[in-house]
Amino acid sequence: MAVTTGQIIKWKQQQRPIVTLTAWDYAIARILDEVGVDIILVGDSLAMVALGHETTLPISLDEMIHHAAAVRRGVKHALVVCDLPFLSYQESISQAIHSAGRVLKETGANAVKLEGGHPAMAETVARLTTIGIPVMGHVGLTPQSVHQLGYKKQGKTDNEAARILDEAYALYQAGAFAVVLEHIPADLAALITNKLPIPTIGIGAGPDCDGQVLVTADLLGLTDKQPPFVKVYANLREVITQAVQNYSQEVRDKKFPI
Ligand code: KIV
Ligand code: NA
After folding, report:
1. Residue 217: is it exposed, middle or buried by C-beta count within 10 angstroms (0-12/13-18/19+)?
2. Is 113 one of the annotated binding-site residues?
């Protein structure tokens, strides 16, 4: 049975950890889904890991839709969530409805994710969830605000920590079904996880979140440099390099094809 947002919330109640990873194309999505990953996120990090941009800011809604549709075709079981890219939802509630609606209608994704939990964003989330568009929130380090925040850990002062807790709670009240907590202290993430009836999905937020997410390209060792909280589970860069070297040599030596 395909994963639903209701199931995700039930897993929090049962304290069953929620496995989340990113995907940017059909081939990767199929593998993650066949392994049984719970949530597959078409993260706008694909702007960096798949398209070579310096930040997530340049990617367009059309590009996200193109990738999300490919991912969706590879997924039978997992919940598919698609990031709304920078400036596709911040302008107005109607812009957010238009963008999120396009994602759901044109890709078949189950939900959208957007960054920030300040009052204006909570209002946007409330409108989206009211009209039947499931929303995953994202607070702490929000990479679409890189020009203000950099990629530093957030929530290290009491004031900042209190603000992030308020934002996460406002997203819950606005109807979000889960919230990503990125690069914040583990004790703050634990506190938010305890206060929120909806699941927290952590990245660089310690072990006490209801689920974990990583950028799949980082986990697979496809990126040159990873954030400090990443664990690299495979070195695909090395595997691919070796395979391409072997092929090149065999073509030059006239050993392939035989
Ligand atoms: O774009 C992304 O990959 C993300 C995750 C890191 C949560 O937003
Ligand atoms: Na993202």
Report:
1. buried
2. yes
Write the burial class of residue 58 (CB in 10 Å: 0-12 exposed, 13-18 middle, 19+ buried).
middle
Half-sphere exposure of 162 (CA within 13 A, CB side): 3
Mean pLDDT over 126-140 rounds to 98
ipTM here:
0.99
CA distance 192 to 205: 11
Is residue 22 within 6 Å of ligand 1 at its C-beta?
yes
Domains by residue range for the chain, with CATH: 5-252 (3.20.20.60)
User: Is 83 assigned to a binding site?
Assistant: yes
Q: Read off the pLDDT band of 199 (50, 70, 90).
A: very high
Chain centre distance of CA 112:
10
Instruction: Return the pLDDT at 61.
Output: 99
Q: Is the CB of 85 under 6 A from ligand 1?
A: no
**Of the residues 34, 123, 182, 250, which is catalytic?**
182
Q: Is the peptide bond before 228 cis (omega within 30 degrees of 0)?
A: no
Nearest to 171 by CA among 201, 145, 144, 148: 201
Which is the closest atom of ligand 1 to the Cα of 215? 3
Q: Which residues of 1-31 are buried (b: 16+ CB within 10 A; e: fewer)?
A: eebebeebbebbeeeebbbbbbbbbbebbbe
pLDDT band for position 257 (50/70/90)?
A: very high
231-244: average pLDDT: 98
Tell me, using a 6 A CB cutoff, whether residue 200 lines ligand 1.
no
Give me the helices (H) in 14-118, please.
26-35, 46-49, 61-73, 93-107
Q: Is 250 in the active site? A: no
Question: Averaged over 202-211, what is the pLDDT?
Answer: 98
